[in-house]
Amino acid sequence: MDAVPIDPTRHTFAVGVVGGPTVVIDYGGTRFVTDPTFDEPRDFGNMAKLEPPAVPAAGLGPVDAVLLSHDDHHDNLDVAGRQWATTAVPLIVTGPGAATRLGAPALGLPTWDSTEVARADGAGRITVTAAPAVHGPLDGTRDASGHVNAEVTGFVLRAAGLPTVYVSGDNASLAPVVEIARRFPDIDVAVLFAGASRLPTKNQGRPLTLTGPRAADVAAALGVSRVVIAHIAGWSIYSEDFSDVRTAFDEAGIADRIVSSGAGFWSLL
Fold this sequence. Notes:
alpha/beta, 5 helices, 17% helix, RibonucZ/Hydroxyglut_hydro, Metallo-B-lactamas, hydrolase activity, Metallo-beta-lactamase domain-containing protein
């Protein structure tokens, strides 16, 4: 299939990366966007954004909901992304801490809680469930709320007649994935934030997001047939690139599950 650019056109089911952790998911004609990062390249001090978004926020058309893993790191919610999400989108689904900080229109879901979103195609409702995530090593330094590095939320999307989709958020651990697989044995598609993000000042420089081998383990544990890799390019904090992830999947014998394409184009359509 020729590469199809992401634009305002809605689809029954489609997944494509805009840049960094920002992914567009069309689901029953409803448009979701993960972790909005729409700034031009800039220095944030402990990290730098190196590439602009492949599609500007205005190029996505109206968006029904944001799936925000967390709000307190610029590589998941930059300045332009925050402004857009809080003023141009009717719903932000996130964790309780982020919802408290952001205010309306954010909805904070504790782990395993769900909310429903109407399908834009009129064929019922979409269930969005908050999934657990660990933003670093299991023995990592915990913040004031008791979470490693920060409170992070993943998501599971389910609706009749559509693939079940898992969005990892900034999870670095296999441990929560084991429980996700037990509760949702029917996940078809995984959007995995990889890149093995590292900061020398955090947790002895150990990965804060999935490494390539761990992403392959997550895909195998979930039994998914299709994987879209995000959060792999465009920021200074990545210690791995897409070729590292592809090598890891190849070594695990599941290279055929990766369907990622270049930023700005649909990986699944």
